[in-house]
Specification:
about 350 residues, alpha+beta, Beta-lactamase, 7-stranded antiparallel beta sheet, two-stranded antiparallel sheet, 11 strands, disordered N terminus, Serine hydrolase, Beta-lactam/transpept-like, signal
Length: about 350
């Protein structure tokens, strides 16, 4: 009898262990946690966080996901709107398959790729590689076809070698998009649909909304703007959190997820290049088009990383606590959030979690 009881207890333990390790994913719709408080999200704290969102931000949609289920949502999470520079992080994800199958060689230079612009590239600038572009370390300080970067902090053209200095400049990112299409012979938006939207069962993806734009008298490389809903942004974050795996499919290799979230620029170097970053409230390094949270004493923020866009667009992944945060501010309503507000939301969202 005692032996039988020990066997039953052992089986129960094994079953519970397997269940706890099983990953949860949304199907056509997201599932909501039935009792968030029981899994570490106290009701009072979640209510206070929502009040903060209403009273102190201009966020129009927010989703907080834990263990693959929504534990908190606010606003219109199904509305598609402009996600600004979050587009860059999504492009980095698309690169993976083509880097790994050899279609794209990250060590190819701009010269080898026949890249030039309205303003001619200097010989030194032509030495920049694709790797330099996606790390924001090209040393090319031409104006992009769209604004919204830190080019005003750029050194004199030709004064730094490619790869030696970090600067967040839209020229790099727009050219990275152009090169992706040139080398793969595929449209970025078609790739989003094939690699991400369809396999992730995005609820709101609309291919017809996606369009490029930019001033082609300044640069011939347009910005590949994107429109997503908040709940579909959360699917992007969950895919990254799961190291590129979605249910039974490896959509992006785990190695590539690690590559794009690996530090290429430390927070201290980024702040030296752009002193304004010291005022943001979190210390951020940089990978391949993903921002990395560094120099934090909060264990919930350890190894966290983020896609960020102007006006208040954000996807943040917190690997240590199995959490994804997605929020946005729809500019159509003439609302915006500062970078400092984004940082506060990123911190306050996980301060709710008590680690159960």
């Amino acid at each position: 009898m005692r032996k039988a009881l020990l066997i039953i207890c052992s089986l129960t333990f094994l079953l519970s262990s397997c269940q706890s390790e099983a990953q949860t994913y949304p199907d056509e719709t997201w599932s909501r946690a039935e009792n968030p408080e029981a899994t570490g999200w106290p009701d009072t704290d979640r209510t206070n966080f929502k009040r903060y969102i209403i009273d102190s931000t201009n966020i129009t949609g927010l989703v907080l996901v834990h263990n693959g289920q929504i534990v908190l949502e606010y606003g219109n999470i199904s509305e598609n709107s402009y996600i600004a520079s979050c587009r860059k992080s999504i492009l980095s994800m698309l690169y993976g398959t083509y880097v790994e199958n050899g279609t794209i060689d990250l060590d190819n230079t701009l010269d080898e790729l026949n890249i030039n612009d309205v303003t001619e590239l200097l010989p030194e600038e032509k030495k920049a590689t694709i790797k330099d572009l996606i790390a924001a370390r090209s040393g090319v300080y031409l104006r992009g076809s769209n604004g919204g970067d830190f080019r005003r902090f750029a050194p004199e053209r030709g004064s730094v070698a490619p790869g030696s200095h970090w600067l967040y400049n839209n020229w790099d990112f727009n050219v990275a998009g152009y090169i992706f299409e040139q080398e793969t012979q595929s449209n970025i938006y078609d790739e989003i649909e094939a690699q991400l939207a369809k396999p992730l069962q995005m609820q709101d993806w609309d291919r017809t909304l996606q369009k490029k734009s930019g001033n082609n008298t300044i640069s011939k490389f347009p910005a590949y703007h994107m429109w997503f809903s908040t709940r579909d942004m959360a699917r992007i974050g969950l895919l990254m959190l799961r190291n590129g795996e979605w249910k039974d499919s490896q959509l992006i290799s785990e190695d590539w997820v690690q590559e794009i979230t690996k530090q290429r620029t430390s927070y201290s170097e980024a702040q030296k290049s752009v002193p304004l970053l010291k005022e943001d409230g979190l210390d951020l390094g940089y990978g391949y088009m993903w921002w990395l949270i560094e120099n934090t004493n909060d264990p919930r923020l350890k190894n966290a990383y983020s896609a960020q866009g102007a006006l208040g667009q954000n996807i943040t992944v917190y690997p240590e606590i199995d959490v994804v945060l997605a929020f946005k501010t729809n500019s159509v309503y003439r609302r915006r959030n500062s970078i400092q507000t984004q940082m506060k939301v990123m911190q306050k969202a996980v301060e709710i979690y008590d680690g159960r």
